Amino acid sequence: MHSGASIGSIGPSGRGAARRRASGNVYRAVSLSLIVLVVSLSLLSVHLATQVQSKGGKPPAKNLAGSVGRGNDRVGDDAPSAASSASQGRRAEDVVVTPQIAAPYPNGPKTDAKYAHDRVYCMVPYVWNREFYDVIMQTWGKRCNVIQFLTDSQVLVGGVTKGDNVFKDPTGGYKHHSELPEGTFPDNVVFINMTRPWMGCTDPKTGKPKVCRHIWEKMWRSWIYVGDHHLNDAEWFCKVDYDTFFFPENLQYYVRDVKGWDAYNEHHYFGTVLYHRESHGRPPMAAGAAACWSHKTMAGIAEVYRKMPKGHQGGDRGRCEDRPEASEEVSTSMCLKKELDVTAEPMVDEEMREYIMLDPYHNMLTWNRTEQGEWWFWKGKPKNAGQMEDCCAIRPVGIHKYKQTILIEQLDKQFYGPADGKDLKRLNARTRRYADKVRRAMGIDK
Fold first, then answer.
1. In degrees to the nearest 10, what's the CA dihedral of 324, 327, 333, 336?
2. Which of 235, 233, 224 is nearest to 294 (CA)?
3. pTM over 0.90
């Protein structure tokens, strides 16, 4: 007696079940084939993209203005230096950059192919001030490939700062930025913890509150942050004072068209060079209004700042170290010379005209060396240095000392606005001649 039906004796219901099992097998086979096909196509696309990049197909640089997350609370003295070590021997053509997302120039950075590997990182170190942040981002800041504002973690609430002065008593006191609501600060504001706070100082003449100037500590901490987080976002790194009107596209013109420099394999530290401290045994230094360096120098100096001695409480000992009340320019030039053997290079054109002006340009156009004598600006400069209407290059990189936001707005209109605009018409004849030369040189006026 059989306990069950054999295979050869399956009835109609058994045959239906078999057909259903066969259909299920076909469905699973088809599904598996489709999955294999999708995976194969994905792998093929990745392979093709890699081949395109390896053959030199590089899209233009991405505009990172305003795109960096806020609130970097601490720049560690012993932060890892993988970024800087990886950069040694890099070539511009080895860097794969991401697509440009920006408004057309002059409302965004230059997108010319020849400047694709001359991206400019603009760093503005200051005490948080919304008014100046907004005007910079609405004017010259939008032309940087990357711009960040490096500021102290403690924020004035309810008061107003103008330059080094606190003009209104803070109604809300001073708070750590993290205590304020989410979204209070733009994404490209980075907070740096300082051992020496900016608040608590008073003007000895008026007795009123003023900003404590601990700019050297802010500078070296900020550059460590940039070296750790943004070394591969640009080829040229510039510190720009909040009251300097900056021209990123003219910086690109200078390093590429005038100098032909290699940012990855050459050390460069440049700006308006001052020589008046050489008699005190100090190297030449780039004035702090705007000073720039190459990718190689950026990587090197970040490592120097990580390792230099911290916390010295005395005066100047002629060393590369952290100390109170140190001069930013003197300390920067000394660290570069002692640790990297890099000396400041003057930004002047073939007619010895400065690319960066340390005073408003209507003033610089009147500076007469013969009448003024050898004060600190002129001391040590070549005898044929430009002066008066021949003071300044017609592709300026920076113009300093505009401490009111309305003046920065006016400069933007003078150099980028309509040729018949009121901000140009109100200039005196000498200043207008220079502004017209600049506009033509930059291609604003054809």
1. 20
2. 235
3. no
- φ, ψ for residue 5 (rounded to 5)? -75, 145
Q: How many residues does the chain have?
A: 446
In the prediction, which pLDDT does 77 show?
38
The arithmetic mean of pLDDT across residues 76-98, rounded, is 39
135 by Cβ neighbours in 10 Å (0-12 / 13-18 / 19+) ranks as buried
Whole-number Å distance between alpha carbons of 235 and 296 = 9
Across 126-210, where does the E strand assignment appear? 146-152, 154-157, 160-162, 165-168, 173-176, 189-192, 201-202, 209-210
pLDDT at 157: 78
Q: In the predicted model, is pLDDT for residue 365 greater than 90?
A: yes
Q: How far apart are CA 401 and CA 245, in angstroms?
A: 8
More confident residue, 61 or 121: 121
Quick one: 232 exposed, middle or buried, by C-beta within 10 A (0-12, 13-18, 19+)? middle
CA 130 distance to own-chain centroid: 18
CA-CA distance, 61 to 99, in Å (whole number)? 6
pLDDT in tens, 183-241: 999 999 999 988 876 566 677 787 776 666 688 999 999 999 999 999 999 999 999 99
Q: Can you tell me whether residue 288 is helix, strand or coil?
A: strand
| 416/138 Cα distance (integer angstroms) | 12
CA–CA gap between residue 134 and residue 112 (Å, rounded)? 27
> Cα separations (Å) of 117 from 61, 128, 200, 232?
8, 31, 44, 11
Q: To which residue do tokens 């890892």 refer?
A: 80
Helix-strand-coil percent breakdown of the chain, rounded to 5? 40, 15, 45
Q: Residue 386 has which token pair?
A: 């430009």
Cα dihedral value 317, 319, 322, 323, nearest 10: 10
